[in-house]
Write a structure and sequence with these properties.
This protein has 104 residues and is mainly alpha-helical. Helix content is 42%, strand content 8%. It has five helices and four strands; from the N terminus they run αββααβααβ. The strands form two sheets. The protein has a two-stranded parallel sheet with strand order 1-4. Strands 2-3 form a two-stranded parallel sheet. Helix 3 runs parallel beside helix 4. The longest helix has 16 residues. The protein is globular, with a radius of gyration of 15 Å.
Length: 104
């Protein structure tokens, strides 16, 4: 899988990379919010089964948000899986050069 920076894919990128493209359906804007509680509340109020949540692991405030989000999602019955695992569970066969955002 390839998650292109900024989600930027054009025909040159698509032709150069023989992989499926992993995108997101929920953009937390964590880099902009910079507030763990606000990030957590956004995810918990927005994300649904099959969504792909975009987060940036370079920020401490995102880690702090995950300390709130992960236990709460598990308490709600969600399982946290890799992108590939989620696609497989939902019966999606990924193809090279195609964009995948969610499983719904």
């Amino acid at each position: 899988l390839v998650r292109p920076p900024y989600g930027a894919v054009n025909e040159t990128v698509r032709a150069s990379l023989a992989h499926p493209f992993a995108f997101w359906s929920v953009d937390t804007l964590d880099w902009q919010l910079k507030d763990p509680t606000a990030i957590a509340n956004y995810i918990l109020g927005t994300a649904k089964d099959g969504d792909v949540v975009l987060l940036h692991d370079i920020y401490g405030f995102t880690l702090e948000a995950m300390r709130i989000v992960v236990p709460e999602l598990k308490a709600r019955g969600y399982q946290l899986v890799t992108f590939s695992e989620m696609m497989a569970v939902h019966g999606v066969t990924m193809e090279n050069g195609q964009k995948y955002f969610e499983c719904k």
